[in-house]
Specification:
The complex is a heterodimer of chains A (154) and B (392). By secondary structure, chain A is α/β, with parallel strands linked by helices. Chain A is built from six helices and five strands, in the order αβαβαβαβαβα. Helix content of chain A is 55%, strand content 12%. Chain A has a five-stranded parallel β-sheet, sandwiched between helices. In chain A, α1 packs parallel to α6 (138-153) and α3 (65-75) crosses α4 (89-102). With 392 residues, chain B is α/β, with parallel strands linked by helices. Helix content of chain B is 46%, strand content 12%. Chain B has a seven-stranded parallel β-sheet, sandwiched between helices. Chain B has a two-stranded antiparallel sheet with strand order 1-2. The longest helix of chain B is centred in the last third of the chain and has 28 residues, at 314-341. The chains are: A alpha/beta (154), B alpha/beta (392). The interface between A and B is large, with 55 and 50 residues. β2 (55-58) of chain A pairs parallel with β5 of chain B.
Chain lengths: 154, 392
Amino acid sequence: MKAKIMFLQEVRNSVDDFAEREGRRPRIMLANFGFAENNHDITETATVLADMGFDVDMEPWGRTYIDVAQDALDNDVHVIGINSIKGEYKSLVVKLLEELASYDREDIMLVISGHIEAHNIKEMYELGVSVVLVDNCYEKFAKGILSGLETILF
Amino acid sequence: MTETYKPEWVPEKDDDKFACRVMYGVKGGHEGMPGSNVDLSRKSAPVIKRSKMTVDDYVEGIIKGDRMTLSRAITLIESNATAHFYIAQQVIQRLLPYTGKSTRVGITGVPGAGKSTFIEALGNRLCAEGHRVAVLAVDPSSTVTKGSILGDKTRMETLSRQKNAFIRPSPSGGTLGGLTRKSRETLLLCEAAGYDTILVETVGVGQSETTVRSMVDFFLYVVITGAGDELQGMKKGVMELADAVLINKADGDNKRRAMVTRAEYARILQFLRPATEKWETRAYTCSSVTGAGIPELWNEVIMKFFSQGKENGVLSERREHQTLSWVYSMVEEHLHNLFYRSPSVLACKDKIETDVVEGKLPPTIAVQKLIAEYAKTEIGDYIKDTSPFAIK
C-alpha cells in the first residue's frame, strides 16, 4: 500500500513539473462512444487521473467521432481518452485520427483508457494510438501520457 | 427474406419438431473483414509537434471567428506560465476594441441545482433564434491533488453540437491573476470572436459567485425546492447579488412545491436591497426539461433588464465600475503571488511551518515572522525581475 502511495506521489510530482513548464495541467478528455450515461469505467478513470493531478474533461454519452473531435478542439485538450468501445474501435480510432488531421491538430494524443483485449493492443499502436492502459496500471498509463506530451510539446 | 438453414445438431428424423433456424453471417464489408472501406494501413503513432502561434495569428483568427484559434487563445489566457502571460496580454490589448457588445449573463447555484441543464435549454433556444452563444463553465480544482473533473459538457449534449455555440469548461485552479483575470479575459476573447451572448456558469460555493458577479451584467441565481426555509435565504450572501432568482425543476410532481418556494423567495426578496439600481429582483420558476418558463424568463425579464439598463445608464455605469474593480482585484492577486513566490519567504517557510505544527510558535507570531521575512526582500528589484506585471 505504501509503495502504491509513493508511486502516486511520484506521478503527481511529474505532473506538477509538467504543469510548471506548460502553464497548465495535462488535460485529458474521456470520450464516451458507448450508450450508458453513467459509465462506471469512465468514472473510475476520471477520478484516478484527477487524483494524479490531471484536468479531466467528461463527455456526454453516445458521441460520434465528429463531436468528439470538435469538443477536443473547443476544450483544447492535450489527450483524448477512448474508454472501452468493444467491437467498433478500429474504425472509430481511424476516423477520429482522420478528423483531427483534417483540422491540422494531429498533436492531440489518442489513448485507450478502458478494457481492451491483449491481442488487440499491438494493433492499436499500429493504428496511431499513443498509450494503452494495460492491466489497470494507471501509473504506467499516466507516465506514458506525460512522456508522449513531452515529445509533442517541448 | 434472408436465407436461413437448420443447425447441424437437429436430428434428421425429428426435423419438423425443431423450429430453430440460423441466419448466414456477413460475408464482407464489415470491420476487419475483406471489403471494409476503412483504411487500416496507418502504422505507429506519429509524433507531430504542436504548431506555434504568434500574436498576429491569434488576433486574426479570433476576429475571423475561428473556433480553434479562440480555444487556443483561451488556453493561453489560462496558462500560468509567465511567458504565455506576455503574449496573452498583447492579444487582449489588440482585441479590446472588438469587445463589449455582448449580453453577459452569470449563472450560479448550488451543485445539482440544474445550472448546466438550464443552460442547455436556454442556449438551444438562443441558437435557434440566431444568436451566437458562448458558455464559460468554471469547475473547481481539487486543493489536495490540484486535478479537476470538468463535467459540465455532459449536461449540454445538444448545445455542444450547435455550430453557433461554444462551450468552454475551465478548471478554477492555479493562480497568476487567478479566476478573475482568466474568466474576464476569456469573456473578452469570446466577444471579440463574435459571440453576442455570453453565459458564465459557476458553482455557488464561496468566492466564485462574487467574482462572477463582478464581470457580468445580469446575475441569475438558480435554486431548487426543499433547500431550507425563509431564513436560509435571508442570510447575507448570494441572494443579495442576484438580479433574478430562478426556481428550477418546476415540472411534474414538483411543480406545486416550486410555486410555494417561489412565493417564499418572493417574500424574502421584498426585504433585500436589489443588486441593481432601479431594478426589482424577483423569483421565477422554470423547467429545463419541458422548457416551460424559459422563453418568458429570457424575453420578459433578462431582455427587459438590458433595455431598461441601457436606457437609464445603469449598465454602462456598472461596466465602468467593473473595469475599475478588475484592476484592484488584479493588484490583490498579484500581491498574493509576490508573497508566495518571494524567495526569502520560500526559504524560511518550511522551518516556520514545522515550528507552528510542533507548537513551538503561535500562529500569530508566525505571520509576523513571515511578513518580516517578506519585507526584507528587495521588493523593487524583485518585482522588476519576476513580476509579469512589471513594465519592461
